[in-house]
Amino acid sequence: MVDRPRPRVDALVDRFGRIATDLRVSLTDRCNLRCTYCMPAEGLPWLPKSEILTDDEVNRLIRVAVQRLGVREVRFTGGEPLLRPGLPGIVAAAAALRPRPRLSLTTNAIGLARMAAPLRAAGLDRVNVSLDTLHAERFDAIAHRRRLPDVLAGLTAAADAGLTPVKLNAVLLRGVNDDEAVPLLRFALTHGYELRFIEQMPLDAQHAWDRGAMITGGEILAALRAGFTLLPDPAERGGAPAETWLVEGYADAAGRPAKVGVIGSVTRPFCGDCDRTRLTADGQVRACLFAREESDLRAGLRGGATDEELAERWRVAMWGKRAGHGIDDPAFLQPGRPMSAIGG
Predict the structure, then answer these.
(1) Distances from the Cα of 11 to the Cαs of 18, 312, 328, in angstroms?
(2) Which candidate, 5, 99, 114, 186, has a CA 20 to 30 Å from the CA of 316?
(3) Which residues, at least 6 apart from 135, have a Cβ–Cβ distance to it below 8 Å?
(4) Sheet holding 276-279, edge to edge
(5) Dihedral angle at the C-alpha atoms of 31, 33, 39, 40, nearest 10 degrees?
(6) Which of 96, 97, 77 is nearest to 87 (CA)?
């Protein structure tokens, strides 16, 4: 790559010409589950409250991203974002911005039965819900909590509140739930949800990820085709992380052809079209989910930086984004932070 000067544009451009328009905002590193592919059963040390961005600081950075940097979509993540007391107010502040960004939430749905309607009223557009199994005993084994009924209730409440399309995220684990590809898709089709299978990624706090044990996107597709006829999706993928297929003979809740997706971050990477930028709960910009470097915006926020100074720091951070995540590189090292502290 020939290095070139960074252009003076009001956008988050990197050296490879990609433009980040999708912002993932982690609101907390705390979670009320202990999923085996994310953290140990005993949990993790949480960030001190003093290091977490305040609601006003989160709102300000989202405003900078939308009004100065061209961000068009904001996804609230965690940890578990429903644990953030000020979540409805943060959503409302983002919904009041002009231009208005699309607003979504990635959640385990525990508490969503109570929060779905208030979040919809605040301006949230839709939700992604993690659901790895339909069996209570398997849920207990994966998440170390007996909360499957709460998740299912949250899904129903989200659909009833109009947080649609409701999308499901599922991770298949070899020897645990790897026989549930077809049942999970059948469940999603029955209820009008959109299902996405995600390859297990090297983002666990234990650093126990094993590529050889990971269920690949190809294996997932083979399992799905044993129960359904999948057709190529004619829609342009763009920067979406999921490759999608139409499920022949099925329609979604709006009457459109039903789809299923596979996010093959490891075996079918989409780095060349990535349009995401990430903000951690403690105010660090991450140019890539797998980056080992971060850029501090919290210090600027608390040190009196202007909006334009914050925007410029953000531009500089994204300009240095690497061409790809490098998982196939023998020198690849997992990020120092696990997924719960980065935000999905």
Answers:
(1) 10, 10, 30
(2) 99
(3) 148, 177, 180
(4) 230-232, 243-251, 257-263, 194-198, 167-170, 126-130, 102-107, 73-77, 22-26, 276-279, 284-286, 295-296
(5) 130
(6) 77
The C-alpha angle 102, 83, 157, rounded to 5 degrees, equals 60
Residue 13 Cα distances to 17, 231, 279, 286, 323, angstroms? 6, 34, 16, 14, 12
Distances from the Cα of 299 to the Cα of 65, 134, 282, 295, angstroms: 17, 44, 10, 10
Segment 194-214 mean pLDDT? 80
DSSP structure string for 130-192: E---S-HHHHHHHHSS--HHHHHHHHHHHHHHT--S-EEEE---TTTTTT-HHHHHHHHHHHT
What is the length of the chain?
Answer: 344
In angstroms, the CA 65 to CA 79 distance is 22
Pick the CATH number of 12-342 from 3.40.630.30, 3.20.20.70, 3.40.50.300, 3.40.640.10: 3.20.20.70
Q: Is the pLDDT of residue 1 over 60?
A: no
Which single residue is written with the structure tokens 């699309």? 102
> In this predicted model, what pLDDT tens digit does every residue of 152-182 receive, in sequence order?
999 999 999 999 999 999 999 999 999 999 9
d(CA 24, CA 106): 10
> How far apart, in whole angstroms, are the C-alpha atoms of residue 248 and residue 258?
8
> What are the beta bridge partners of residue 130?
169
Residue 19 clears pLDDT 50, i.e. is over it: yes
At 142, give phi and psi (nearest 5°).
-75, -45
Residues 302 and 52: beta-carbon distance below 8 Å: no
- Is the pLDDT at 268 greater than 90? The verdict is no
Average pLDDT of the residues of the chain: 92
Q: What is the mean pLDDT of residues 87-99?
A: 98
